[in-house]
Amino acid sequence: MTRSTGVCYHSLNKSGDCIGCRIRLSKKILELRRRKDMVESLLHEMIHVLLCSTNNMDPGDDHGPNFRLTMEVFNNSFGTNITISHTFYEEVEAIKRHWWECDGPCQNVVKRATNRAPSSKERWFREHEQTCGGSFIKTSEPEGRARKRRRT
User: Fold this and answer.
1) Which residue out of 31, 40, 45, 143 is catalytically annotated?
2) Nucleus: present as a keyword of the record (predicted)?
3) What value does the mean pLDDT take over residues 53-81?
């Protein structure tokens, strides 16, 4: 995870009842933050677990009225500052250490946290090919990082 601090995966049975949840936190982002931010991110995800396990999820809206009410109760009861989204933009940018620059007229730079070159799988890529025509060349990666080669 490189844009979100956490995610909650729900397992539902055929009738839509919760049969289990799994929380995953972003170590890459949260290790750059205070412990309080990690705790509040975990509590955010635990609200999702609570709503799933009590069959109170808001249909079609992960952060709907039930989530917001529970969040407000937690914040008022425990003095926390659980929010719907984070503002850790500097941390998200800091982990984007794989850079590709376009050698065409646009000279765009694509920065990513993962070593994944821009490709036709991107929504914007076709328009880039048509309007610019340049190729993306890797220009930066984390220090000491050797590129893995696939065995054939």
Assistant:
1) 45
2) yes
3) 93
Nearest-angstrom CA–CA distance, 152 and 146: 18
What's 44-61 look like in SS3? HHHHHHHHHHCCCCCCCC
Q: Domain-by-domain residue ranges, the chain?
A: 6-89, 96-140
pTM over 0.70: no
Q: How far, in Å, CA of 54 to CA of 23, rounded?
A: 17
Alpha helices in the chain (DSSP H): 27-30, 35-53, 65-78, 89-94, 125-131
∠ CA 77-48-80, rounded to 5°: 25
Enumerate the β-bridge partners of residue 140: 99
Mention every residue, 6+ apart, whose C-beta is less than 8 A from residue 31.
Answer: none
Q: What is the distance between the terminal CA atoms of the chain, rounded to a whole angstrom?
A: 29
Query: How far are the Cα atoms of 38, 98, 134 from residue 115, in angstroms, in the given order?
Result: 25, 6, 20
